[in-house]
Specification:
11 helices; binds uridine-diphosphate-N-acetylglucosamine
Length: 337
Amino acid sequence: MILVTGGLGFIGAHTVVALLDKNHKVLIVDDLSNSSISVLAGIVSASGKSPVFEQFDLKNKQKTEQLFRDYTIDGIIHFAAYKAVGESTEKPLDYYENNITPLINLLLCAKEQPGHIPFIFSSSCTVYGEANTLPISENEPIKMAMSPYGNTKQIGEEIVRDATNVYANIPSISLRYFNPIGAHSSAKIGELPLGVPQNLVPFITQTAAGIRESLTVFGNDYPTHDGTCIRDYIHVEDLAQAHIAALEFIQQSNQPHFYDVFNLGTGKGQSVLDIIHAFERVSGQSLPYVIGKRRKGDVVAAYAETTKAEKMLDWKATRTIDEALYSAWKWEQQLKR
Ligand code: UD1
């Protein structure tokens, strides 16, 4: 079965549904530190199938070892991590402990298994920082991380690469996500930020739903077409599919010591105002917003060069920004009921 850590989180849950849809058996480990048990019912309802669920913290090495004794694990997709950039600057050690220790525990267990254990690591385009060249290809140099969160992704990639280099049975891929948004088309699962959302799209949908008074656009004096920052927003269902493509690529190519990195984006850049206007169009809601100051640590523009994933993984994002925003809105509306 495929072990999905953080499988009740936003990207994890969508990937679990995509795996179940393709008849994979799935084992979720999640400690519920930033997710809700209700997501499990959403997964069952969206897929019509049940994953196995174990609730524990992967920092616990004994429990992680026991998991590998209790189940036959033949692939790992490792999502479980903290992801709030701002919070990571206030609690750096919590971020290093939580994002690195479980990764090491999983790899230590995986290397002891008799067969090949493909390993997929959730990384981020944040490793590129303010890139020299747009669109950003995988050859873009890695910049010094701008936050402890970003650093955990850089260090995580290095740990995975170094482990794969030595242990032939953990062929691995690091996936560098651009900006995942949206929800499952069934509206049974979606993003569930605890507290005030830090990311743009959940803030937009909560504002439209009346939960937040207005959205603050973080700066409109950037050197872009409308002065607001540019990102590559990718539908979470496309992103989920990419994990299956990566897993199947490793399984089919069957190369010991395989390690590579892939960007996951659409290749298109959209500004904050572009997203606001697209949301207003697809939802029919007008969105109250104000222009505020720049947010510390934001890069001006980041969007992906996508040909490597297209060629090697035979995967490409197919859903539009309108579909992504519409699905996010449908999800937000059903949350209120
Ligand atoms: C960043 C990282 C991403 C990382 C993520 C974790 C980059 C390029 N991206 O995403 O890799 O995984 O953090 O959270 O480093 N905005 C507003 N108002 C808001 C919220 C956001 O104007 O209330 C703007 C931001 O300034 C930014 C855009 O919306 O320009 C997207 O912000 P957000 O959704 O937080 O994602 P990133 O910061 O791009």
